[in-house]
Amino acid sequence: MDCDQNPVTLGSYLDGELPPEQADSVREHIGGCGKCAAELADLVIVKRALRPARGLFTPSAEFRRRIERQIEVPRRRPLVWRLIPATILAAAVLLVAVAWTLYPRRSNDFAEVADMHVSALASANPVDVVSTDRHTVKPWFQGKIPFSFNLPELSGTDFNLVGGRLVYFHQSPGAQLIVAMRQHKISVLIFQDSPEMDRAFAVPAGVRHRDAFSIETWQSQGLQFFVIGDAEPAGIDKLAQLLKAAN
Amino acid sequence: MNPEFFESAAMPLFDQLYNFAHWLTGDRTDAEDLVQETYAKALKGFRSFEEGTNLRAWMYRILRNSFLTSRAGLRAQNMAALDDDDDADLQVATSHSVTPELLLLQRESEQKVMNAMASMPAHYREIVLLCEIEEMSYKEIAQVLAIPIGTVMSRLARARKVLRQGMTAKSSEKAAKWTVIKTPSR
After folding, report:
1. In this structure, are B71 and B104 located in the same domain?
2. From residue B134, how far is each of B82, B92, B157, B181 by CA, in Å?
3. With contacts defined as CB-CB under 8 Å, which chain B residues touch A57?
4. Which domain holds residue B51?
5. What is the interface size between A and B, counted as CB pairs within 8 Å?
6. Which of A211, B79, B114, B139 has its CA 20 to 30 A from that of A160?
């Protein structure tokens, strides 16, 4: 039996590429044409035989990674993460700037405290109220300074109260007490605490040294205390401990 | 187009492209080079890629064009000049005298079918691969090969014929071998 059916059409029919009407026509033809039915069967065999060729060759994992790296888009970190280095840098700059600003001021403030001690001792009248009795000295300051403080009982210690005077620091009145330890004169300075004081004297606890003077400062009860003198640091610290216990 | 979109859209094609490249080149190293070149070219040209275009067909076309200009591709083209896609002789060439032998193919090993594919001219192998392995529509194949759909149909028919001949020849060779082997024992 001869047939003029184009084999191209049979292939297209098998691949589902014919328009519906033409596909119906070919289907009908195949039903009555043994030659085309056999041809179609051959094409089906070829198609089935080729199935194993799908995915026959698989790339290596290493090659896949290489391609992935090749086309990988550089990941941009979230804005917050990208700002962290800039933030750290800005904070560091700010810290250095603040330290740069505060250090000379702190240094000047300590110098001023030392000056108050020296000027008192150099004065012909080192104290305005002369008394070894704390119950005399403390009341003398009433009405002169806007705060009150406690004086420890010094009898029986290495220290003797000499008297007190009114001083000013940062335009604020404060109390200066002169205490003798053997031949050494020690100043106890007491001022109201303030943010400026905090910034100027926020230092670790303990005795510091300034122009050969030993100085210890601390805050308590809203007051800023200084103990300064040329006595040995242990003596300065001992007096400071007595004052801390009293306040 | 967004490069991140390319990364997410192109990588799922990786296995298929590699399989296709290996079939075209017949060699792992050449296939890797071809795929790598394809992705490099695609990434470079992706900014001009128009949304809505068939990405798969676009990638296969790059790979196929890269193959044609590669050493392996030029070698393959020299080995077999492209036949006329005219289907005038297809009618004559289609012989059903081999049908019983074709039936033997069902019992042939997969390796024999693969060998028949591998021995086909490259331009026939690629269109069979695109149709049968990649299951592309004629329209997609036309885009990849840059030929009209009519040419896709005729070339595909011719390629199938060549493949069947190759497969049948191998079956015939095997049948002949069986005959030769069995003759002395009669």
Report:
1. no
2. 22, 29, 17, 40
3. 18-19, 22-23, 28, 31
4. 3-79
5. 119
6. A211
